[in-house]
Amino acid sequence: MTFEQRYVALGDSFTEGVGDDDESRPNGVRGWADRVAEQLVLADSSWGYANLAIRGKKLHQVLNEQVDAALAMSPTLVTIYAGGNDILRPKVDIDGIVAAYDAGIAKLCASGAAVLVFTGFDSGSSPVFGRTRGRTALYNELVREAVENNGAVLVDYWRMKNLQDERYWAVDRLHMSPAGHMLTAKKVLEVLRGTDAIDTPELEEQPARNRVEQLRRDAQWAREYLGPWVSRRLRGVSSGDNLSPRYPVLTHPPLPVS
């Protein structure tokens, strides 16, 4: 099938769609990129969509494994976010990884595609991941410079303060919930100056918790999610090691039933 417009999504779990579960789709997730592609196709059926993102990928892996594969599809639109998994490591050279990122963004922009690049999220409210806030702030400043230098377009995830509400996050507290993916898809489409028919997420009422209940909840989260996450890092194992890209070639995304 030949597509006049071609959207290719690159990155890690954020772009793969982790947290937005849908067992009917590849890798069992949907995500904001699928939702953006669905709206593009609904507005113009000439759009094709590929998603090369795989959870757990570090920045150099995204660049080495996904950029050339994306360029081979002659994209007209690329979205990319990489570096979040690097920032969470005990040691990281922020200047070094963003210098490589800059070169990758430049390569994508040189193709003539419109390139949308995300800043990192402000995790300052998280008692665990908030410790990386300073790293992310530095990363973001360098990413903004790379975006400006290469003529890319910025999606400023850092400034989406409404996402600070925990109801926009999955139970693992690391990935967005379906509501978070919906909100992010609407933001991307806003940056693209496109219209969308995505419902504004309706959040369930947040139950009041006393200190004991919150501590019990935090302990359960640490056992079920934080511990296994740390264990994988120590063993050099990634949750995406045995996964393939969800949509490795251009296709029409599955459209929502309603």
Describe the protein in words.
By secondary structure, the protein is of the alpha/beta class. The chain has a single domain, classed as Rossmann fold, CATH 3.40.50.1110. Helices cover 42% and strands 12% of the residues. The chain is built from 8 helices and 6 strands; from the N terminus they run βααβαβααβαβααβ. A 6-stranded mixed beta sheet has the order 5-4-3-1-2-6, sandwiched between helices. α2 packs across α7. The protein starts with a strand and ends in a 7-residue tail after the last strand. 42% of the residues are buried. The mean pLDDT is 90.
N-to-C series of helices and strands: EHHEHEHHEHEHHE
Determine Rg (CA atoms, Å): 18 Å
What is the H level of CATH, i.e. the homologous superfamily? SGNH hydrolase
| Terminus-to-terminus distance | 26 Å
What name is given to the CATH topology? Rossmann fold
Number of strands: 6
CATH architecture: 3-Layer(aba) Sandwich
What is the domain tally? 1
Helix content: 40-55%
Strand order in the largest sheet: 5-4-3-1-2-6
Instruction: Describe the global form.
Output: globular
What is the topology?
Blueprint: E1 5-11, H1 13-16, H2 31-43, E2 47-51, H3 59-71, E3 77-81, H4 84-87, H5 94-110, E4 114-118, H6 133-150, E5 153-155, H7 178-191, H8 211-235, E6 247-251
Parallel strand pairs: 1-2, 1-3, 3-4, 4-5
Antiparallel strand pairs: 2-6
Helix pairs in contact: 2-7, 3-5, 5-6
GO molecular function, one term: hydrolase activity
InterPro entries: GDSL_Rv0518-like (IPR053140), SGNH_hydro (IPR013830), SGNH_hydro_sf (IPR036514)
Organism: Arthrobacter yangruifuii
